[in-house]
Amino acid sequence: MSLKLHTVPVTPFAQNCSLLWCDVTLNAAIVDPGGDIERILAEVAARDLTVVKILLTHGHIDHAGATMPLARRLGVPVEGPQREESFWLDQLPNQGQMFGFPPAEAVTPDRWLEEGDTVTLGEETLAVLHCPGHTPGHVVFYSAAAGLLIAGDVLFQGSIGRTDFPRGNHQQLIDAIRGKLFVLPEETVVVPGHGPYTTIGDEKRHNPFVADARYR
């Protein structure tokens, strides 16, 4: 396996910005750069990586607030989320004012992502799954080879994403978790947008919001 991962907690919300890279080429992607650009770039430099793209799971400010200045600084494209997420990405300046974050720019990705798309990183390929509910255009990134899922704010250790925001949908979120994530191998490591890592198997058995008695 050549896909490597390091998470960098950013913003006052302690969002798990993920640094993903191919260990063969040292090409890297920054997933969900919500803020704290210098902290993120220090981790890139410490590993002598070459960032080739920014990936977004969704458009909330703690995940996307630093996207545009970072993309310009690195000269790299932005890929994701799914195009329904323009609802949130267009509102990033207002989100910043609402939550007391530094000023943020609206984001228009270079590439919108859809269910079934893939993103490449050196010699690695990640599958894109559209998992709406927390937000309408939320996507997650899955590497079957590495047994790794970058889940954004869909699934957490013992919890799930909030659905009380505009255009949130509780049933869509439950359906996405059970229909798209819980069919992945149980040993798959889940990297949530906040908090500790977990596994698909642990959440199938113990998560009070989506656990299924058949797996206990």
TrEMBL record:
InterPro entries: MBL_Glyoxalase_II, Metallo-B-lactamas, RibonucZ/Hydroxyglut_hydro
Metallo-beta-lactamase domain sequence ranges: 14-194
Cofactor(s) listed in the protein's UniProt record: Zn(2+)
UniProt keyword terms in alphabetical order: Hydrolase, Metal-binding, Zinc
Source species, domain of life: Bacteria
This protein's record includes keyword Cytoplasm: no
Molecular function in Gene Ontology: hydrolase activity; metal ion binding
Pfam family name, one: Lactamase_B
Keyword Hydrolase: yes
CDD domains linked to this entry: YcbL-like_MBL-fold
Listed PANTHER family: HYDROXYACYLGLUTATHIONE HYDROLASE GLOC
Protein's name in the database: Beta-lactamase domain protein
Provenance organism: Pseudogulbenkiania ferrooxidans 2002
